[in-house]
Design goal:
Length: 110
């Protein structure tokens, strides 16, 4: 899903994450051993995309990883989030949640 002129990839399976990593031609490995991860990934031409992985299918994991994603996106586009201007963070994480929560596998929604 495109956001702030950046792409976000959402994956639920380690094998899909590995294929996504190969497709994006990334040199840095991803941390695929835990319940999930969120990271900014750069390919050799400097193009950035964000990847959110939710391997356990859990809603708490999705929310946790979306929090990391939100900080990563806002930092990348130059929005400084502070206690006095946290609306950008709140609106972005709300939008990301609305886009991604329906995609969670039904069996993993906890």
């Amino acid at each position: 899903m495109p956001i702030y002129d950046q792409n976000v990839y959402l994956v639920f399976d380690r094998k899909v994450a590995e294929r996504c990593h190969a497709y994006l031609q990334l040199s840095e490995p991803w941390p695929i051993s835990g319940a999930g991860f969120a990271c900014a990934a750069y390919n050799d031409d400097g193009t950035c995309c964000h990847v959110v992985a939710v391997f356990d299918g859990g809603l708490p994991t999705l929310i946790h990883e979306l929090s990391h994603l939100t900080w990563n996106i806002l930092r990348r586009v130059g929005v400084k989030v502070k206690p006095t201007n946290n609306e950008a963070y709140a609106y972005l994480i709300e939008w990301l949640y609305a886009q991604t929560a329906p995609m969670l596998p039904k069996r993993g929604r906890k």
